[in-house]
Amino acid sequence: MAIFNPYESERTRVPAGDVRERDPGLPWCSECDTDEFLMYEDFVPARRPAGGGHLVAASVNYSCSVCGRFNGHEVPDSWNPPNWFWYS
Ligand SMILES: [Zn+2]
Question: Which residue range forms the structural domain that includes residue 30?
Protein backbone atom coordinates (compact mmCIF):
# COMPACT_ATOMS: atom_id res chain seq x y z
CA MET A 1 0.00 0.00 0.00
CA ALA A 2 1.36 3.36 -1.03
CA ILE A 3 1.79 5.98 1.66
CA PHE A 4 1.37 9.58 0.51
CA ASN A 5 3.34 11.99 2.57
CA PRO A 6 2.17 15.55 1.87
CA TYR A 7 5.06 17.10 3.77
CA GLU A 8 7.66 15.30 1.70
CA SER A 9 6.05 16.19 -1.60
CA GLU A 10 5.67 19.84 -0.57
CA ARG A 11 9.30 20.01 0.47
CA THR A 12 10.60 18.67 -2.82
CA ARG A 13 8.23 20.76 -4.93
CA VAL A 14 9.29 24.10 -3.45
CA PRO A 15 13.00 24.22 -2.69
CA ALA A 16 13.74 26.78 0.01
CA GLY A 17 15.24 30.01 -1.28
CA ASP A 18 14.74 29.05 -4.91
CA VAL A 19 11.53 30.97 -5.51
CA ARG A 20 12.26 34.31 -7.12
CA GLU A 21 9.23 36.06 -8.49
CA ARG A 22 10.45 39.62 -8.21
CA ASP A 23 13.70 41.53 -8.18
CA PRO A 24 14.74 41.97 -4.53
CA GLY A 25 16.19 45.35 -5.45
CA LEU A 26 12.79 46.80 -6.28
CA PRO A 27 10.65 48.71 -3.77
CA TRP A 28 8.46 46.44 -1.72
CA CYS A 29 6.57 46.46 1.54
CA SER A 30 7.58 43.29 3.32
CA GLU A 31 4.94 43.99 5.94
CA CYS A 32 2.02 44.01 3.49
CA ASP A 33 3.83 41.80 0.96
CA THR A 34 2.95 44.13 -1.90
CA ASP A 35 4.15 47.29 -3.64
CA GLU A 36 0.60 48.40 -4.26
CA PHE A 37 0.39 50.97 -1.47
CA LEU A 38 3.84 52.45 -1.63
CA MET A 39 4.21 56.22 -1.76
CA TYR A 40 7.46 57.37 -3.31
CA GLU A 41 8.91 60.34 -1.52
CA ASP A 42 12.27 60.76 -3.14
CA PHE A 43 13.81 59.31 -6.25
CA VAL A 44 17.32 59.95 -7.48
CA PRO A 45 18.11 58.45 -10.88
CA ALA A 46 21.46 56.89 -11.64
CA ARG A 47 24.02 59.63 -12.11
CA ARG A 48 27.67 60.19 -12.68
CA PRO A 49 29.56 62.21 -10.06
CA ALA A 50 30.63 65.71 -11.18
CA GLY A 51 34.25 64.70 -11.12
CA GLY A 52 33.60 61.56 -13.14
CA GLY A 53 34.13 58.04 -11.95
CA HIS A 54 31.73 55.25 -11.27
CA LEU A 55 28.05 55.63 -11.91
CA VAL A 56 26.12 56.16 -8.69
CA ALA A 57 23.16 53.81 -8.51
CA ALA A 58 19.63 55.14 -8.56
CA SER A 59 17.98 55.25 -5.17
CA VAL A 60 14.50 55.72 -3.84
CA ASN A 61 12.84 56.49 -0.53
CA TYR A 62 9.30 55.37 0.03
CA SER A 63 6.78 54.55 2.68
CA CYS A 64 3.76 52.30 2.77
CA SER A 65 0.44 54.07 3.09
CA VAL A 66 -1.09 51.08 4.85
CA CYS A 67 1.38 50.10 7.56
CA GLY A 68 3.57 53.21 7.52
CA ARG A 69 6.76 51.29 7.05
CA PHE A 70 9.51 53.49 5.62
CA ASN A 71 12.22 52.18 3.36
CA GLY A 72 14.96 53.49 1.15
CA HIS A 73 17.59 51.79 -0.95
CA GLU A 74 19.27 51.59 -4.32
CA VAL A 75 17.24 50.39 -7.28
CA PRO A 76 18.15 49.07 -10.73
CA ASP A 77 18.96 51.82 -13.25
CA SER A 78 16.06 50.80 -15.43
CA TRP A 79 13.49 51.33 -12.70
CA ASN A 80 11.39 54.46 -12.25
CA PRO A 81 8.60 55.02 -9.75
CA PRO A 82 5.22 54.36 -11.36
CA ASN A 83 3.54 57.57 -12.54
CA TRP A 84 6.68 59.47 -11.69
CA PHE A 85 7.19 62.80 -13.41
CA TRP A 86 9.74 65.52 -13.09
CA TYR A 87 8.77 68.90 -11.77
CA SER A 88 9.91 71.61 -14.14
ZN1 LIG B 1 2.84 48.08 4.21
Answer: 24-75
